[in-house]
């Protein structure tokens, strides 16, 4: 999961916000980490001082690692109060290397406004933590880093869903919050030995609500019907984008510019009928490619728009399903080198934390079983 977050993120980052047609025209097809950022030749001020490409990760990975460190600090399950305490410290008060900025700084310096909402609501506004996500732009910002919650609830999708909702409500609301819960559940399910793509999608559908559920169901069905034509990428993207437009109407117009200011819209606002597009599309490409790791990630990235987050969401589910062995060693080496990370070490240390939390859960469950057995014996004696 840890390496897959960085891999999907870094592969999608160089083409983020480009349309499917623009990616096809400029790149043919993105197929590796070693891709040049489409903005790299612009003046520094026009790219906000950032660099991307050749394996550099974005805020998706930085926030995921911040959540991992929060688990390591607390050593237990989390909720919105932990977002308002330890997690906000990780993103706003403790420096780390930010690859896009090529310097040690606060993650906050890199975050998009909806993610800076965490600092605004929990530090400046001193909001009730469980209401921290209210009023925020509804987007994929929580779902993109929520996968560690699936890890500490491995094999317990409902537990992962519940914890993700309780934690991410400090950041997101509506279908943005719902997507976080569903993604965490998918990761938890993917860890089960022998779990299949159909099992994972079935888990998503059993827990997802409203527009999120409808979008996943419709796109998964379309993906199954398109398997025989999966190499006709133009046709696949056209079908997928036509379907997701019912639930996420922005389409290819994902950039913010002056002409949009003051124009009424229901984009990014709370709704029971909408869905973010990243999670349903990631699941659709997993279904289309029957769980093939690299092809699912790459098809998602090359479909355009929020490419890094689509790559992350497909990656974390399939990374949990297949394990780190499915990832090319050269990709791990490149990610570590340019981002100054040791991803396998981060994963190993987080696995120890997650295992400790799961052991606590199992011990608590055993205690409850013994208690229930004792109650049963008392009942039997009373009947006598």
From TrEMBL:
Pfam families: ADP_ribosyl_GH (PF03747). PANTHER family: ADP-RIBOSYLGLYCOHYDROLASE (PTHR16222), ADP-RIBOSYLGLYCOHYDROLASE-RELATED (PTHR16222:SF12). This is ADP-ribosylglycohydrolase. It comes from the Bacteria. Its cofactor is Mg(2+). GO terms for molecular function: hydrolase activity, acting on glycosyl bonds; metal ion binding. Mg(2+) binds at residues 58-60, 306, 308-309. Its EC number is 3.2.-.-. InterPro entries: ADP-ribosylglycohydrolase, Ribosyl_crysJ1, Ribosyl_crysJ1_sf. It comes from Paenibacillus pasadenensis. Keywords: Glycosidase, Hydrolase, Magnesium, Metal-binding. Binds 2 magnesium ions per subunit. The keyword Metal-binding applies. It is an enzyme of class 3 (hydrolase). The keyword Magnesium applies.
């Amino acid at each position: 999961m840890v390496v897959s977050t960085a891999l999907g993120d870094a592969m999608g980052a160089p083409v983020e916000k480009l349309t499917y047609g623009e990616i096809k025209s400029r790149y043919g097809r993105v197929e590796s980490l070693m891709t040049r950022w489409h903005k790299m030749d612009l003046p520094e001020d026009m790219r906000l001082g950032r660099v991307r490409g050749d394996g550099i990760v974005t805020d998706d990975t930085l926030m995921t690692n911040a959540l991992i460190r929060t688990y390591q600090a607390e050593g237990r399950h989390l909720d919105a109060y932990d977002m308002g305490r330890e997690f906000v410290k990780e993103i706003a008060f403790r420096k780390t290397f930010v690859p896009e900025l090529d310097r040690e700084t606060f993650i906050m310096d890199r975050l998009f406004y909806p993610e800076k909402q965490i600092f605004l609501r929990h530090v400046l506004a001193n909001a009730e933590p469980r209401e921290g996500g209210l009023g925020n732009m509804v987007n994929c910002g929580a779902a993109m880093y929520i996968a560690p919650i699936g890890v500490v609830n491995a094999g317990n999708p409902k537990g992962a869903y519940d914890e993700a909702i309780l934690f991410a409500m400090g950041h997101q609301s509506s279908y943005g919050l719902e997507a976080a819960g569903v993604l965490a559940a998918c990761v938890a399910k993917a860890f089960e030995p022998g779990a299949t793509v159909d099992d994972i999608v079935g888990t998503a559908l059993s827990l997802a609500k409203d527009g999120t559920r409808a979008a996943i169901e419709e796109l998964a069905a379309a993906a199954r019907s398109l398997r025989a034509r999966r190499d006709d990428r133009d046709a696949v993207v056209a079908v997928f984008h036509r379907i997701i437009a019912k639930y996420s109407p922005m389409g290819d117009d994902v950039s913010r510019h002056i002409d949009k200011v003051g124009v009424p819209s229901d984009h990014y606002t709370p709704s029971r009928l909408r869905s973010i597009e990243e999670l349903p599309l990631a699941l659709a490409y997993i279904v289309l490619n029957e769980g093939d790791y690299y092809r699912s990630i790459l098809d998602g990235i090359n479909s355009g728009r929020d490419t890094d987050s689509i790559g992350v969401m497909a990656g974390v589910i399939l990374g949990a399903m297949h394990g780190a062995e499915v990832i090319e060693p050269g990709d791990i080496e490149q990610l570590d080198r340019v981002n100054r990370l040791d991803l396998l070490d981060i994963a190993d240390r987080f696995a120890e934390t997650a295992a400790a939390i799961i052991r606590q859960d199992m011990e608590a469950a055993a205690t409850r079983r013994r208690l229930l057995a004792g109650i049963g014996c008392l009942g039997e004696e009373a009947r006598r």
